[in-house]
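Bench notes, bay 3.
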Amino acid sequence: MIYCGIDWAERHHDVALVDDTGQLLAKRRIGDDAAGYRILLDLLAEHGDTEDAPIPVAIETSRGLLVAVLRQGQRRVFAINPMAAARYRDRHGVSRKKSDPGDALVLANILRTDMAMHRPLPQDSGLARAIAVLARAQQDATWNRQTMANQLRSLLREFYPAALDAVASWQNGLCRPEARELLRLAPTPSQAAKLSLAQLRSALKRAGRQRSLDAEAQRLREILRGDYAHQPPLVEEALGKQTLALLGQLEAACTAADDLAKAVEETFPHHPDAEVITSFPGLGTQLGARILAEIGDDRDRFADARGLKAYAGSAPITRASGKKHHVGRRMVKNDRLNHAGYLWAFSALNASPGAKVHYGRRREKGDWHAQAQRHLFNRMIGQLYHCIHAGELFDEHVAFPSLLAEAA
C-alpha cells in the first residue's frame, strides 16, 4: 500500500510517497495552482492511484482548494494536527532538524504506522458543507458584532452615559437599528441634548420603528437632556469622531450578520436532516444550522453517540493514576459545537418541561449552572444522534418519560 504526505504552504506544497516498509518512493514540490494540482494527481496515478483504490493522503489542514481537489471521489484525506505531527517528528531524531520535505515524509509515515488512530475527513454532502460555510460565517459575524458593540459601549461610558441609559431598555442594546441611528444623528452628548422631539421621532422612524414613536421620542428626550457630567468640549468632539468610526464598524458587522442569517434561513431547510434537528426544543433555524455544520451528515463519522458527545465536549473525561481519580469537563473539543450546545440547553429550559426538570434535578444534586446545562446538552445531543440515524422526530414523552411522570 502507498501512503502520501503533503506539507502545505501558501505558495507551494511538498509531497512525499512511501510504501509499507517506509521506503521513500517519490518526493515533489508543486505550486499552489491548477497546474500544481494536476502534477500531484499525475504523481499519485503513477504509483497506483485509482478511482476504486485511491491513495490516502495526510495533510495538516482541512480547508483550501488543495483539500477540495483531493477529496473528490472516494479518497480518504486525514487532517493531522500540527502538534501531533511535531511529536511524530521527534520519534525519529533528537536533533530537532526540520524541513518542508521532511515534514511531508513524517505525515506519510503517520499514515503508514498509525492510520487507524486518526480519523479521515467526513464524507459530508455538498449541501451540508455549504450550510457549514454559511453557519460558521454567521456565527463569526455574530461574535464580531458583539465585540464591536462592547468596544462602543466601553467608549460611551467614558463621555456619553446618556446614550447607554437610552438604549438600556432595548433588546440587543447598541446593536439595534434605533440605537445606531441615534448615535449617527448625535455622536456627542452636547448634540444629543439639542435634539427635538421631531428629530428623535424621525430617527426612530428611519430605523424601522413603527409603534409608540411619540412616547419613545419623549422618553429619549428626557434621558438625553438629563444631568450628566461632561468631558471638555474639544475632548468630547474628538470622542464623538471616534464614536462615529466605531459605529461604522458596528454597522458593517450588523449588516454581515443579518445577511448571513438570511442566507442560512434560505439554505438550511432544504437539508433532509433539518426537520429532525428543528423538532428538538430550543433548536431553530440558526442554531440548528450550527449544529448540522459541526456534526455533518456523514452517518459513519461517529461510531456511536459517545463519540459525538466527546466531540462536542459535553461528555466528562476521567483522569486516573494510582490513588488519584478526577472526573472533569473536557478541554479538547469542537468549540463551535460546544458553544451552540450551551445556547441549545439554555433555550430548551423554556421550551421543554422535561429539560427543565432534568436541569432542576442536576442543580439539586449540587451542580452549578454551567455543569447542569452541560449535562442537559450531553443528554439531548445523544438523543439527537439517535433521532438522526433512526429518522425520527423528537418526542418529549420518549425523551424524558420518568421526569415528566415525577413532575406530574
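Next record in the batch:
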Amino acid sequence: MAVGYLEILRARHATRLLAGTLVGRLPNATAAIAIMLFVRAEGGSYSLAGALVAAYAVANAVGHPVLGRLVDLYGQPRVQLPAAVLSALAMAVFAFAGIGPLPLAYAAVAAAGLFTPPLEGGLRALWSSVLRREDQVHRAYAMDAVAQEVMFAVGPLLVTACVSLWSERAALLVLNAVGVLGALWVVVSPPSRAWRSAPREAHWLGALRSPGLLAMLSAFLFVGIALGSITVASVAYADDNGGDAVYGWLMAALGIGALIGGVVYGARQWTGEPARRLRVLVALLAVCYLPLTLLPGPVAMTLLTVLAGVFLAPVIACAFVLVDRHAPRGTVTEAFSWLVTTFTVGTAAGTGLTGPVVEAGGAGWGFVVPGAAGAVSLLVLLATGGVLVTSARGAVVASSSENDPNRAAEPRFSSGDRA
C-alpha cells in the first residue's frame, strides 16, 4: 500500500502540486467556520452568520464551473492566480468593513466565493501529465480524496488556532493570504504553466453536453445530500447524548472512516468497468448509513459513524475516473468543477432538508435521510448505466506528441486533459 502512494509522491512535481493545491484550498475549506466566528465576534446573530455563509456557498457553486471553463480556455496561471487574489481581497474587504453595512458584507462574501479558484479541478487535470500510467492516475484520485478529508479536518483547527493567537478578523486575513500563496506555488510550477487543454468544440453547454457527465452529476447530487444530512442528524443526536463534544467525535469519526476507505481503495489496482464499480460503492455507502438509525450510545455510535464514512472517499475517487472519461475534449477542468459544484449544492440541500425532518421526528429519522439519499443515487446510476458505459467506450482518444510522449494513446483513458 505504502509503495503505491510513495511511487506517486516521488514523481516529479507531484508532491508540490498536491501540497500547493491543499494549501490553496484552505480559504474555501475554512470559509464557513471563519465567517461564522467573525460575525459572532462582531455581534451578529446566528441567522446573519448563516445567511452570509450561504451567500458565499451559492456564489462559490456558481463561480466554480465558470472559472473551470476559463481555465480550459486560457490555461491555469492566467485564471487561477488572479481568481485567488480577487477572492482574498474580497474577504479582506469583509474582514475590515465588518457587518455594519450589510449590503457590502453580502457583496464581499459573495465575491470571495465567486472568485474561489478551481484548484481542485485543476489538480485532477494535471495528474495525467505528471503520472504516466493510468493506474497511477486512478491512485492519485484516491489520494486526492483522502487529502481532502485531512484538509477539512485540519482546516477548522487552523481557524480556531488563529482566533486563539490573534482574532477572528486575523483568521480571515491570514488563511486567505496563505491560500493565495498555495495557488501561486501551483501555477508557477512547470506542469501548470505547460498545461493546455485539448482543442474543444465551441458549445454553450461546454462539459454539460456529455450525457455521461449529466448522469454522474445527477447521482452525485444525492451523495452530497447524504453527507449534508448526516451532519445535521449528528447535531440532533449529540444534543441528546452529551452535547458538542459528542458531535465533534462523530464528525471526526466520519472523516477517519473516509480516510481509511480512501487509503485502502487507492492501494489496489482496480480492473473492470468503473461505472459498475461505482454502483457497488454507492450501494455500500447507502447500506452503511442505515445502522445509524439505531441510535446506540456515544461509543457505539462513533464506531458506526466510522463505518458510515468508509465508502465516501472511494465513491469520490471512482467518480473522478468517470468524470475524466466522460468530459468532452477540452472541458476537463470545467467537468471536475461541475462535480464539485453539484456536491456542494447537494450538501447544502441535505442540510436544509434534514432540519425539518429532525424537528418533526428526531435524530432517528434524521439518519434515515442519508440512507435514502444514497439509495436514490444508486437508482440514478442503475437507470443511467447504459449511458455511463456506452459513452465512455465510445469516447474518442486522440494522441499526439504533446499529450503522449510515447506516441501511443492509452486504451480507455481520456487524453483530453493531458499536457
